[in-house]
Specification:
The chain is of the alpha+beta class. It is built from 21 helices and 22 strands. Helix content is 36%, strand content 18%.
């Protein structure tokens, strides 16, 4: 009676460093949206014709990374950012560089810890970024030496790949990297781009004071990045043997930037660019027309955002010959995080995302692209994060992003704006709906509800779940991403509490967890209205009280014919007394006990026949009724011990558990804001 589709060996949430046995790997030409726009101009011959007689030095100039010799640019860099960088760099200058020890690398295999090694590598990278900028601004020998030391530290690191990504364990059983066969992962791409930008900026000074250093950078880049990229078709993120995700544009963009800045052979640059664009086209082809990113806003910055940066680089080095600003899906993807904004630092978070901005997002990126595409709402959204007197960027975003922000005088001079906060959003590709009382205001309640499938990138079992914000602040929440470990992308992923449907605001028929994989999906019964506009065919389309209805039985291992429908209605009062109604109706073939969960962040108290949630001066009241009497929940407290979750939610979360039963039944949950 129950469905058991079996394990998907290429699940989107599994880490696949090597192809499964017997998998054919083909680098055959791909024709997607980029090819439809540019045709043969994106192939090697077309690129050679476009680049023409341009020298490698000319291509480097086009990228827009300023050399230290451009004193005009470095002297007008944002003073607030420079002051912060010099202060932070000065504090760490006399300390030892972070130790990325072999024993830390081996912990991923030994005990599952990946974060400790990753923090050490990140500390090295951030220190180097600060040193490069300090050297560029001051032009002092001491800072040139500090930056050179950082380069040597990274060049002497055994691998640029993270232990969680490296294929040496899968191929050879190693707990250490295989230095004879370097793996090209996200951080290897980040490091090669960082070293290339450092070389571009400080190279003229290093030629005099550090002869041999620039040659070392090029040797390591060739061995660890360019040769693997050009010769290894088995790298999964290229898209030759499985679906791609944010890895694809993230790595491709960094490899391309490094190639233009480090290579002197324009023919090779054209070949490398052609390979990169063919691979990127596979990522663009997976983007839905509504621009939704199933990995959520947190991964937009290092997925779709990386795509935009790479397309910007492509336009620059082809002198505008390959311009992506007119491709419709690119424009929609650009709008996605703006549409997920709840207010202030808070966002709708799905999958492995976090609900609150971490404060160092590269806001210059959407600001620039909003300007390029003349999308005023996107530039306003970016400007809403601009703080007078605050740095324009942070070293945590990486050296290329830091330098781009410092060189962008328009971003330096941008003034804060009000966030657009669209009134209603409907993204049919991922079945995500966001609704608030009025556009442009975080006041009152906001609802975000989700359908979709349980085979999304960075998937959580969250079908039918929802969150509620008051004044922009989440009170009914999606837990989001805990600290990654070896378990996160393994067969034991869904043993992690934050990824279980039981710890999302979702029902649990018979106490069941939702199933894993593409066979487990929600079905839209009533599609809400909201931008960007078009909807897929559903049973009906409605604008009545902001209604959104899902059939959720397909999310669980239930017999065919069972039904669990969840309807969301948003009642905007226009006077600050908004109301959200969530109705669960079930019709099942067997009798039994069921649970409906709500996940709350803040202080949770009982008040008469209801529950109140309060945090940061915001309060909501939640009352549930089964049609004959109020239903009160049991309260289960989760004392958090994960630093990433504590940073977002504080010390604890509370699960509200409503016990219901029967072959058929109804539970109506009413959520109201309290003054």
């Amino acid at each position: 009676m129950t469905r058991n589709p079996g394990a998907d060996t290429l699940s989107r949430v599994s880490a696949h460093a090597v192809p499964p046995p017997g998998t054919a790997v083909s680098a055959a030409e791909f024709r997607g949206p980029l090819y439809a726009e540019w045709g043969s101009a994106m192939r090697e011959e077309g690129l050679l014709a476009t680049l023409g007689s341009a020298t490698a030095a000319a291509l480097r100039e086009r990228v827009g990374i300023p050399s230290i010799e451009r004193r005009d640019i470095w002297m007008q860099a944002d003073p607030n950012t420079i002051e912060r960088i010099l202060a932070d760099a000065g504090e760490e200058r006399d300390r030892p560089w972070a130790g990325a020890l072999g024993s830390l690398f081996a912990r991923y295999v030994r005990d599952g810890d990946r974060a400790t090694y990753e923090r050490a590598v990140s500390a090295r990278q951030e220190r180097l970024s600060r040193a490069v900028v300090a050297a560029a601004v001051t032009d002092e020998p001491g800072w040139l030496d500090e930056a050179a030391d950082g380069v040597v530290v990274l060049c002497e690191q055994s691998t640029w790949s993270l232990p969680a990504h490296d294929d040496a364990h899968a191929r050879r059983g190693f707990v250490l990297p295989d230095v004879a066969s370097p793996y090209l992962d996200l951080v290897a791409g980040e490091i090669v781009a960082q070293l290339a930008v450092a070389d571009r900026i400080l190279g003229p000074r290093w030629d005099a004071s550090w002869p041999g250093l620039r040659e070392r950078i090029r040797h390591e880049a060739e061995t660890r990045v360019f040769t693997p990229f050009e010769t290894r078709d088995d790298l999964w993120w290229l898209g030759y043997w499985r679906d791609v995700n944010n890895w694809n544009p993230w790595i491709l963009g960094n490899v391309l930037l490094a190639a233009v800045l480090l290579l002197d052979d324009t023919d090779r640059i054209a070949r490398l660019l052609a390979r990169a664009l063919d691979s990127l086209d596979r990522y663009v082809a997976e983007l839905p027309a509504d621009g939704a990113i199933d990995e959520g806003v947190a991964y937009w910055w290092n997925g779709a955002g990386r795509m935009l940066e790479m397309l910007d680089t492509v336009a620059a080095i082809t002198d505008g010959g390959l311009d992506a600003t007119g491709i419709p899906v690119v424009a929609e993807v650009l709008r996605f995080p703006m549409r997920m904004h709840l207010g202030g630092a808070w966002y709708v978070n799905v999958a492995d995302g976090w609900a609150r901005s971490r404060g160092h997002e590269p806001w210059q990126l959407p600001f620039r692209w909003g300007s390029l595409t003349r999308d005023a709402r996107v530039t306003e959204w970016a400007r809403a994060a601009r703080r007078p007197g605050a740095p324009v960027a942070d070293a945590a975003g990486g050296l290329p992003r830091l330098v781009r922000a410092l060189a962008d005088t328009a971003w330096r001079d941008a003034v804060p704006a009000a966030a657009p906060l669209p009134e209603a959003v409907w993204l049919p590709s991922v079945q995500v709906h966001v609704r608030r009382a009025a556009a442009g205001s975080a006041a009152g309640l906001a609802l975000a509800a989700k359908g979709g499938t349980n085979d999304e990138n960075h998937n959580h079992k969250d079908l039918g779940s929802f969150l509620v914000a008051a004044g922009g602040r989440q009170l009914l929440v999606d837990v989001g991403k805990p600290t990654y470990t070896a378990q996160t992308f393994s067969a034991e992923r869904y043993l992690i509490r934050a990824m279980q449907s039981g710890w999302h605001s979702a029902p649990a028929p018979f106490g069941l967890e939702q199933g894993e994989g593409p066979a487990y999906a929600a079905r839209v019964i009533a599609a809400p209205r909201g931008e960007p506009g078009p909807v897929r065919p559903t049973d009906r389309e409605t604008d009545e009280a902001g209604e959104f209805e899902l059939e959720l039985a397909g999310a669980y291992p239930l017999p065919a014919g069972d039904s669990w429908r969840r309807t969301f209605r948003f009642h905007a009062s226009g006077a600050g007394a908004d109301r959200i109604e969530v109705v669960d109706r079930w019709g099942l073939t067997e009798d039994g006990a069921h649970r409906i969960h709500l996940i709350a962040a803040g202080e949770v108290t009982r008040s008469g026949g209801a529950v109140e949630i309060a945090a940061d001066g915001r309060r909501t009241r939640i009352a549930a009724d089964d049609g004959s009497a109020p239903v009160l929940p049991a309260l289960e407290v989760w004392e958090l011990d994960d630093p990433e979750l504590i940073a977002v939610w504080g010390p604890r979360l509370t699960r509200l558990v409503y016990d219901v039963g029967g072959r058929t039944g109804t539970l109506t949950t009413m959520i109201e804001e309290l003054s």
